[in-house]
Fold:
Amino acid sequence: MVGVTADARPDPALDDEHSPGRPAPAPAARRPRATLVAAGELLRALSAPVRIAIVLQLRDSERCVHELVDALGVTQPLISQHLRVLKSAGVVDGERHGREVVYRLVDEHLSNIVVDAVTHVEEE
Structure:
Protein backbone atom coordinates (compact mmCIF):
# COMPACT_ATOMS: atom_id res chain seq x y z
CA MET A 1 0.00 0.00 0.00
CA VAL A 2 1.36 3.42 -0.91
CA GLY A 3 2.02 5.65 2.08
CA VAL A 4 2.80 2.88 4.56
CA THR A 5 6.37 1.89 5.29
CA ALA A 6 7.52 -1.59 6.25
CA ASP A 7 7.01 -0.81 9.93
CA ALA A 8 3.40 0.31 9.23
CA ARG A 9 4.01 3.99 9.92
CA PRO A 10 2.41 6.46 7.48
CA ASP A 11 4.70 7.89 4.83
CA PRO A 12 5.47 11.47 5.89
CA ALA A 13 5.50 12.56 2.25
CA LEU A 14 1.76 11.95 2.21
CA ASP A 15 0.97 13.68 5.50
CA ASP A 16 -1.32 16.70 5.40
CA GLU A 17 0.93 18.45 7.91
CA HIS A 18 4.46 19.45 6.99
CA SER A 19 7.49 18.34 8.94
CA PRO A 20 9.11 20.73 11.41
CA GLY A 21 12.00 22.61 9.86
CA ARG A 22 10.70 22.03 6.35
CA PRO A 23 8.48 24.55 4.63
CA ALA A 24 4.99 23.42 3.72
CA PRO A 25 4.62 22.53 0.05
CA ALA A 26 2.75 24.98 -2.12
CA PRO A 27 -0.98 24.16 -2.35
CA ALA A 28 -0.57 23.27 -6.04
CA ALA A 29 1.95 20.54 -5.10
CA ARG A 30 -0.52 18.69 -2.88
CA ARG A 31 -2.55 15.90 -4.33
CA PRO A 32 -5.40 13.93 -2.80
CA ARG A 33 -4.26 10.64 -1.30
CA ALA A 34 -6.58 8.73 -3.65
CA THR A 35 -4.81 10.31 -6.64
CA LEU A 36 -1.40 9.26 -5.31
CA VAL A 37 -2.60 5.72 -4.62
CA ALA A 38 -4.09 5.43 -8.12
CA ALA A 39 -0.87 6.76 -9.68
CA GLY A 40 1.12 4.20 -7.69
CA GLU A 41 -1.13 1.39 -8.91
CA LEU A 42 -0.71 2.56 -12.50
CA LEU A 43 3.07 2.66 -12.16
CA ARG A 44 3.02 -0.80 -10.58
CA ALA A 45 1.06 -2.10 -13.59
CA LEU A 46 3.74 -0.67 -15.87
CA SER A 47 6.64 -2.05 -13.81
CA ALA A 48 7.25 -5.44 -15.47
CA PRO A 49 9.67 -5.57 -18.43
CA VAL A 50 7.21 -7.57 -20.56
CA ARG A 51 4.46 -5.03 -19.88
CA ILE A 52 6.83 -2.21 -20.83
CA ALA A 53 7.58 -4.05 -24.08
CA ILE A 54 3.86 -4.53 -24.73
CA VAL A 55 3.19 -0.82 -24.26
CA LEU A 56 6.03 0.03 -26.65
CA GLN A 57 4.57 -2.36 -29.24
CA LEU A 58 1.06 -0.94 -28.85
CA ARG A 59 2.45 2.56 -29.17
CA ASP A 60 3.22 1.76 -32.80
CA SER A 61 -0.14 0.15 -33.61
CA GLU A 62 -2.93 -2.05 -32.34
CA ARG A 63 -1.94 -5.71 -32.04
CA CYS A 64 -3.49 -9.06 -31.32
CA VAL A 65 -1.93 -11.56 -28.92
CA HIS A 66 -0.15 -13.65 -31.56
CA GLU A 67 1.49 -10.51 -33.00
CA LEU A 68 2.79 -9.62 -29.53
CA VAL A 69 4.03 -13.19 -29.05
CA ASP A 70 5.95 -13.00 -32.34
CA ALA A 71 7.33 -9.51 -31.69
CA LEU A 72 8.44 -10.14 -28.11
CA GLY A 73 9.45 -13.81 -28.29
CA VAL A 74 7.51 -14.87 -25.20
CA THR A 75 4.74 -17.42 -24.79
CA GLN A 76 1.08 -16.72 -25.45
CA PRO A 77 0.01 -17.46 -21.86
CA LEU A 78 2.58 -14.97 -20.55
CA ILE A 79 1.44 -12.25 -22.98
CA SER A 80 -2.20 -12.90 -22.04
CA GLN A 81 -1.37 -12.69 -18.33
CA HIS A 82 0.38 -9.34 -18.76
CA LEU A 83 -2.41 -8.00 -20.96
CA ARG A 84 -4.90 -8.84 -18.19
CA VAL A 85 -2.85 -6.77 -15.73
CA LEU A 86 -2.60 -3.86 -18.17
CA LYS A 87 -6.31 -4.07 -18.97
CA SER A 88 -7.37 -4.12 -15.32
CA ALA A 89 -5.14 -1.06 -14.71
CA GLY A 90 -6.82 0.79 -17.57
CA VAL A 91 -3.67 0.90 -19.70
CA VAL A 92 -4.96 -1.18 -22.62
CA ASP A 93 -8.33 -2.03 -24.05
CA GLY A 94 -9.25 -5.01 -26.20
CA GLU A 95 -11.81 -5.32 -28.97
CA ARG A 96 -12.91 -8.64 -30.41
CA HIS A 97 -12.45 -9.04 -34.17
CA GLY A 98 -13.80 -12.48 -35.02
CA ARG A 99 -11.75 -15.03 -33.10
CA GLU A 100 -9.05 -12.55 -32.07
CA VAL A 101 -8.90 -9.69 -29.63
CA VAL A 102 -7.05 -6.63 -30.84
CA TYR A 103 -5.41 -4.58 -28.09
CA ARG A 104 -4.66 -0.86 -28.09
CA LEU A 105 -3.43 1.71 -25.59
CA VAL A 106 -6.18 3.61 -23.83
CA ASP A 107 -4.36 6.92 -24.28
CA GLU A 108 -1.04 8.38 -25.36
CA HIS A 109 -0.06 9.59 -21.87
CA LEU A 110 0.60 6.03 -20.82
CA SER A 111 3.03 5.36 -23.62
CA ASN A 112 4.80 8.64 -22.83
CA ILE A 113 5.46 7.43 -19.29
CA VAL A 114 7.09 4.25 -20.62
CA VAL A 115 9.04 6.01 -23.39
CA ASP A 116 10.34 8.62 -20.93
CA ALA A 117 11.48 5.90 -18.52
CA VAL A 118 13.21 3.91 -21.26
CA THR A 119 14.86 7.05 -22.67
CA HIS A 120 16.07 8.04 -19.20
CA VAL A 121 17.69 4.64 -18.66
CA GLU A 122 19.31 4.68 -22.11
CA GLU A 123 20.83 8.12 -21.43
CA GLU A 124 22.69 6.94 -18.32
The two ends are 30 Å apart (CA to CA). The first strand starts at residue 63 and ends at 64.
